[in-house]
Amino acid sequence: MLDGLDPEQREVALALHGPVCVLAGAGTGKTRAITHRIAYGVRAGILQPGSILAVTFTNRAAGEMRGRLRELGAGGVQARTFHSAALRQLQYFWPKVVGGDLPRLLERKIQLVAESAARCRVRLDRNELRDVTGEIEWAKVTQTVPADYPAAVAKSVREAPRDPAEIGQIYAMYEQLKRDRSVIDFEDVLLLTVGILQDRHDIADQIRRQYQHFVVDEYQDVSPLQQRLLDLWLGDRDSLCVVGDASQTIYSFTGATPDHLLNFRTRHPDATVVKLVRDYRSTPQVVHLANGLLSQARGRAAEHRLELISQRDPGPEPAYTEYADEPAEAEGTARRIRDLIAAGVPAGEIAVLYRINAQSEVYEQALADAGVPYQLRGAERFFERQEVREAGIALRGAARAGGNDSLLDDADDLPSQVRAVLSTKGWTTEPPAGSGAVRDRWESLAALVRLAEDFARAKPGAGLSDLVAELDERAAAQHAPTVQGVTLASLHAAKGLEWDAVFLVGLTEGMMPITYAKTDEQVEEERRLLYVGVTRARLHLSLSWALSRSPGGRASRRPTRFLKGLRPGSGGLGAAGAGGGGSVERGGGGRRKRRGPVQCRVCGATLTEAGEMKLMRCEDCPSDMDEALYERLREWRSDQAKQLGQPAYCVFTDKTLMAIAECVPSSDGELAGISGVGARKLDRFGADVLAICAGEEPGEEPGGEDEED
After folding, report:
1. Which residues contact 633 (CB under 8 A, 6 or more apart)?
2. Strand, coil or helix: what is 682?
3. What is the pLDDT of residues 685-705, one digit of tens each?
4. What are residue 311's phi and psi, to 5 degrees?
């Protein structure tokens, strides 16, 4: 169990008694350290598997921990999220304490919040509805009742999305509707479990007899309510190991606070404290920048920052690039990603990270234009997708049929059996051309095929029924397989993940830190968020910003203050401080004509959204698209893609074709004025497109070489 651990990780593994606090920096192997600690205690006979409860914050992390523990021979250990562990206890004890079945769990509270607002005669748009729902969640995890919400907001210097008294009223109505309909939400699961353990000492004693040793991962993200539950689980014992990093506290808006981690040694003066600072993930160049970011941090969390030491060979310096506008930044990022893929970096090992989800559209468009596959993280959960549910039913049926299923006649091993079954659901050996729903469906099925291949390698004798059981377990834990494609994700959604290459985009004042970060504490959390983004990169790291939002706009933006003294030429710390080498490039300099503001050709309004600029009209303005022309263009695009051996969106995206069908250009100049038609695409495809627009037959051969704008 101890072989292969570094000295500090070994110290964690051997610290099996009393309170233990592990301060673990990004990429330092904390999961390895704590799983080996648990497994070592079990194998040595010091800890009983059934007496250990390991809790973390995401189903994915809990699933990963269970998998590692199984591999280490400690499969009987419970590894769950706080909510999952509490829900099991609540379901078990509810009939005894209250009687009857536990009320139905409300999967999505936003619809009930909308009804509550309507009953209070408060109109909320979609964004306000989401914000108010978040406020209700914050109030509950901080144990704030509706009547106390306005005062709690004022005390916490929290900026409410609407009048606090109004939100308090909606919150009270929401709680009333839940009672009327006998439903509970996820926060209630924790609140009710806490209530039972506080009121029923016999039940608290029963749980404490079962669980005698606790491990809490990501302890910097514990909310006051979760800490209260943990205290009740522990009772007067101190057999607790916590793991965290105050510099990665980025969820305070949900009620998370690093105070419990920072106060651990005050509460437990005899605690064993181990610091993990050997970074096995990132190159010295990436670690240098990460350390530099924290060197300028202020506040209590910054006083406990960890200075990471890279254990990897040197790599390239971080790249800093300044662009004229956001579309140029997206196009430049897509070009660099395409170059990395051409150089051998898998698309699945590349990520584009941004501050808010609304920034994704322009990068989706740019990657599609460049012919680069991508996946959106934070979209619909993998195991809830229709095609994945259908595939699971088909695999389960084939497993039950066994040798009686004719589909499996020529399938000799597990992967070929899965491929045979999923071929009936739309999986093919080659991906479909183009993007959209068909491609998304294929990617989901392809992820299941790859999962079957990995599973067969790990368990050579496994059959379909074993794979179905694995899928059921993953679905319960929401532990999805990876989809091959560049990841687009917000910085918050990227926590806990890592890639070979990371592009941090949109790093301007007002976005990083976000404009509503007013207090010093809020600004410092934004710095930590950027730190989390930097430490996701193993080898390649690119940081970029745009001076204006749209082409031709005033260059009034400034790069984020957090890079001052770190990026070359920004003054401050300079080379003697934390900054590395490298230089700031001017993205697209000389290659890109400066364009004026893009205006809607229907109403004349200035366009700012990437999708609208593609169409050259507001989304709400009426379309005069020639439907027949659009269909002819799509057929032509499909033929071109087949001849070139590329996805259809590498020729033109759907929105570019829509814009062409709306404008019906009659000359090279008119066609070139459509967003998405660059000089090279004009040379390669222009004659064909203009011929189709004129009602003529296009030429037979695609023009030009296989190169993108």
Report:
1. 652, 657, 660, 661, 689, 692
2. helix
3. 889 999 999 888 887 554 444
4. -105, 10
